[in-house]
Structure formats: structure tokens, C-alpha cells
Amino acid sequence: MSVISIEGMEFFAYHGCFKEEQVIGTKFRIDLFLEVDTSTAEKSDHLKDTVNYQSVFQLVKKEMETPSKLLEHVGRRILDRIKQEFNTVEHARIKIRKLNPPLGGKMDFVSLEIEA
Fold first, then answer.
1. Catalytic site residue from 19, 27, 98, 106
2. DSSP string, 98-116
3. pLDDT in the model for residue 23
4. N or C end of the chain, less CB within 10 A?
């Protein structure tokens, strides 16, 4: 079993409970960790035998374009789509960071980690 990680994906999106977040948006950073049996790809050297990073990135990008109030909702949507689209993914973990959240004070980010 291998872990394919795609880390530091950045998106500008409109997720949040506050009306301002839904209008002006903010930056998000996502790390994704996919447990995959890569033994066939290790021998074949064929992309079809593993998970295509570009396809995963495009899936995440598309889900980030759909506004949600909660990071929990965004994360679950992304994980569900990954499990649906990539049947070789046995386990997945995502970390979503909302950068500079409007919480009335200075902080780098808030984050959520969930698994499927």
C-alpha cells in the first residue's frame, strides 16, 4: 500500500457561514492523502495503473467551485467524489485550511481534517 499525497493546492472560493465570506470569498489550501495499491504501476510504469494526480486536482477544483457554509460539507463532498471516481483509492484523508478567517482577530488559518 502506498500513500499518494497532493499537498498545498490553493483555491479562491466562497465557503463560509458569514454573508461576507459568500460574497468576497477567501483563499483555501488543501492537502490530500490517498492510500492506493500501487504495486501494478510500480511494475508497469503506466499511468492507467495508478491515480492520475491531474484528474484528482481537477476534481478538487470543481468541488471547491460549489459554495458551502461549512468546511465539513466541502471536505465530505470531495472525499465522496474521490471514492466514487477512483475505485483504487482504499482510504483518503483531506485537510482543508481557510486562510485568514474573519473571526475578529489575527490568525493564519482554521482547518478541518476528515477521512473516508
1. 98
2. EES--SSS--SEEEEEEE-
3. 86
4. N
d(CA 10, CA 36): 23
Backbone angles phi and psi of 45, in degrees to 5: 65, 30
pTM: 0.91
The number of domains in the chain is 1
For residue 19, give the CATH number of its domain.
3.30.1130.10
52-108 per-position pLDDT tens digit: 999 999 999 999 999 999 999 999 999 999 999 999 999 999 999 999 887 778 889
DSSP run (H or E) holding 6: strand 2-13
Residue 66 and residue 15 in contact, taking contact as beta carbons nearer than 8 Å: no
Pairing state of beta strands 89-99 and 26-36? antiparallel
